[in-house]
Amino acid sequence: MSDEPQPQPNEDSAPREPETAEVPAAGGPAGKKPKRPARTGWRRIIPTWRVVLGTFVLGVLLLTGMFFLGYSMVKIPSANAFAIKQSNVYLYSDGSQLARDGEVNREIIPLSQVSKAAQHAVLAAEDRDFYTESAIDPKAMVRAGWNTATGKGKQSGSTITQQYVKNYYLAQEQTVTRKVKEFFISIKLDRTESKDQILEGYLNTSYFGRNAYGIQAAAQAYYGIDATELDPAKAAYLAALVNAPSEYDVVAHPENKAAAQARWNYVLNGMVKKGWLTQSKRADLTFPMPKEQTVAIGKSGQRGYAIEAINQYLTTNKIVTADELQAGGYRITTTLQKSKQDAFVKAVDDQVISKLDKKNRKVDNYVRAGGASVDPKTGKVVAMYGGIDFVKQYTNGVTRRDFQVGSTFKPFVFTSAVQNHSETQDGRVINPNTIYDGTNKRPVQGWDGGTYDPENEDQGSYGNVTVREATDKSINSVYAQMAVDVGSDEVKGTAIDLGLPSTTPELVASPSIALGVARASVLDMAEAYATLANHGRHGTYTMVEKITKDSTSDVALPEKRTSQAVSREAADTTTAVLQSVVENGTATAAQAAGRPAAGKTGTAEEDTAAWFAGYTPDLATVVSVMGQDPVTGAHKSLYGAMGLERVNGGGAPAEIWAQFTKEALKGKTATDFDLQIQPGSDESQAPSTDVPVDPTTGGQDTGGTTDGTTGSPDPEDPTQGQTGGTTDTGGTTDGTTGDPTGTPGTTGDPTSGDTTTDGGTTDGGTTDGSSGDTATGGTTDGTGGDTGGDDGGGETEGTTTGPG
């Protein structure tokens, strides 16, 4: 080798041998961190702890962000429409349930009206740690899954808060979106509402089966009691139903009774475990079988009629609006008394329904009935009858105003006469003994609206009769004349003062007002007759004792006001006259009530309706039997109904009245009317000396004086008697041999009527003035003189047969 120095290789360009990494000795100077050997095999798929930690942190941050984003975005919504829908509950005066009305069978009540046993039972069934847990309880989810898996009983994984949110705010569908909303709303709700508020909402929105939403509706549906009355046994059964309402209804599904009892035991054991029920009391409990489900709980039977009438009362008196009633939530305690309501139904069933033969008598398909009964001292409606069944005959017989009231209106005419100290056309004070001419189709005197000559019932003529007799026999010609004597405007005013609405259809000031052409409801008429029973003191009828909204706040009711509508003398004198109708007139069937009574029968035009309006000192009741085509709604005559030739007020209506009144007042001492009648009411009066212009009234222009003793010939025509005498007094054609007494005729031949009583035909009398029969009247052709019928016929505006 040469001694010359060899050139050194360039460190930057010369190839470098691989260096072997040296691991510095422990504690030695730091060197470069060695590379971790690459993962091989299965270890390659396991993330490092750095990845795990990073992922966890990232996930937490992401979830936290999502939580706050969701929390801020999801708002507590308004309640869903279904959750706040309620029924209105109608109660009898004693607090028992009359009916429910509404799309949803629910009655929202405060937690204070739910028994503690019921509260604890639901908590034991659904969420035992409700008062200590948060809105979302993971432990509950785990526990629910474990209990279900091990057969210890089903328990919801959702808290009561979550279930309430689902029921009240959200729909029931099982979607991720709904669950997310439920999650956030529950958390927010837990911060804004108390546990009691949430539990109250849950109890009011949960479904218990039998179409019952909420604990109050459930208590009524299964046990017929209010939620405040639920004891531990019944409460535990209702709580068990929440989990499976259909499955655990042991009446509907008796095959599931063992499962239902197991669930019931689970609830009770939970109550013991939580200290809400002692073990000893638990041991004494037996399974409480629920009642049979009521099939017809809607508007069937009388329920629909009552609901409609009460709702009409509430809206007409502006207590609540129709929209508010539609929204529901009202608990309405009515004045109706269940025993009297039942008595009314039975009376109609016995006296009308049982006598119908709809297959063999077409007319029986037209029969309808309506009735109302009022306590005259308080004005409270204690019973009503709207029809056979609301779901079959929906027109309400209590409130309808489309049938004429007939002769039940006549007492208002007489009341007005006494009230206004009215006199006849010839100046005689009108009282029960005032004599009127009861001849058929006698033209009304003193009416300047044209000729009005109403027919009596069956075109009967009665001659001179007292007002009491005219009322007993319901004589149209007498009352039409009396309406004119009093003044038809005054009569109309008196009817309104007694209680008929001023808007009553056909309540028009004219002579026909006396015949009852007005179309009032049985309720209107009951109010008016109650005023007569109450000695003329009127108070608008009431149907509601109390009303609350959502079982918390009372709704204001109108102030109860009464006034002296007519004098006691006017009302009591009318009562005295109407007592005679029951004792001697067309309403003798009412005597079956077995106590002092007053009343009046009536028949509508063409016999489309028959009425009886009557009262005792304790009860005023009006009944109407009506005819209506079930298809067209047209009014139909009741001729032949129930196998009778005709239906009049003294028949079925009076019989219903008597049976109902007897039962309704059963156990109550019968009392007489305490009457202060019009002075002079017991004194007889001489008949009218007015001379009608129409000769068909029969013999009134013929000879004799009022006592039938003198008489004088007419100098113009010696064949005619000039002076004295009504149709009932004597006198011959030359006025010399008149009957010395001239007493009124009383019976009369129902078909002849060809002479006047004690002498005098329309051409001047018989030859001796003594051979007349007792029938009244006598027309120029010797016809007429009929004794008349029960309720009085009549004409409307003198053209067609009118109400009687």
Q: Secondary-structure map with pairings?
A:
Elements: H1 49-73, E1 88-91, E2 97-101, H2 116-126, H3 138-150, H4 160-168, H5 176-192, H6 195-205, H7 215-223, H8 232-241, H9 257-273, H10 279-284, H11 303-316, H12 322-327, E3 330-334, H13 338-351, E4 367-374, E5 381-385, H14 410-419, E6 435-437, E7 464-466, H15 467-472, H16 476-486, H17 488-498, H18 522-533, E8 537-539, E9 544-549, E10 553-554, E11 562-564, H19 568-584, E12 598-603, E13 609-615, E14 620-627, H20 652-664, E15 795-796, E16 800-801
Parallel strand pairs: 1-3
Antiparallel strand pairs: 1-2, 3-9, 4-5, 4-14, 6-7, 8-11, 9-10, 12-13, 13-14, 15-16
Helix pairs in contact: 2-8, 2-9, 4-5, 4-6, 8-9, 13-20, 14-16, 14-17, 14-19, 16-17, 17-18
Mind explaining what this structure looks like?
This protein is of the alpha+beta class and 804 residues long. It folds into 3 domains: 48-74; 88-105 and 297-432 and 466-552 and 563-683 and 792-804, Beta-lactamase; 107-284, Biosynthetic peptidoglycan transglycosylase-like (Penicillin binding protein transpeptidase fold), CATH 1.10.3810. Helices cover 30% and strands 9% of the residues. The chain is built from 20 helices and 16 strands. A 5-stranded mixed β-sheet has the order 2-1-3-9-10, covered by helices on one side. Strands 5-4-14-13-12 form a 5-stranded antiparallel β-sheet, with helices on both faces. Helix 8 packs across helix 9 (257-273) and helix 17 crosses helix 18. It is elongated.
